[in-house]
């Protein structure tokens, strides 16, 4: 009987079914991080004003806005936090769920240009770092993500493409999502 009701609503009530489902299910915020590299293969790190003093450094990070494509969040956050323009790849390199009402996703991105203008409300500093010279106080999950994508930072374009495919395959299975 329940299935017949949902089928009827789906066929005859237009967007009503979607609205009922939206009201009945949990809502999530999406945390987005970007592994931004420059032409020398260095990673862009942000020293956040609101992060713990013991772990002030991390990747370009922010929350996706309603209706925003997640990889576009990296572009927006990089511009807002540093003044830099970046190009984000649309494929994820990590998707982690299991948090209470939050999911985290990460993308590869390339530095395009721009003028360094840190947002004084959020950013104390932003710098490009060599992969083997990451600062103390880097968020452990971000350090792990950088290490997992080491080949993308250090290799040629073919190596980077292969590393991206491997990270997609590996992290997709780990996240537990279909």
Structural notes for this entry:
It is a single chain. By secondary structure, this protein is an alpha+beta fold. It has a single domain (27-175), classed as Nucleoside Triphosphate Pyrophosphohydrolase, CATH 3.90.79. The protein is built from six helices and seven strands. The chain has helices spanning 2-12, 16-24, 70-82, 140-148, 150-154, 157-175, and strands at residues 29-37, 43-48, 57-58, 60-63, 84-99, 102-114, 123-129. The strands form two sheets. Strands 4-1-6-5 form a four-stranded mixed sheet. Strand 2 and strand 3 (57-58) form a beta hairpin. The two termini are 28 Å apart.
What's the arrangement of secondary structure elements?
Blueprint lengths: L1 H11 L3 H9 L4 E9 L5 E6 L8 E2 L1 E4 L6 H13 L1 E16 L2 E13 L8 E7 L10 H9 L1 H5 L2 H19 L3
Total beta strand runs: 7
* Derived structural class: alpha+beta
Q: What global shape is seen?
A: elongated
- Number of discrete helical segments: 6
In short:
With 178 residues, the protein is α+β, with helices and mostly antiparallel strands.
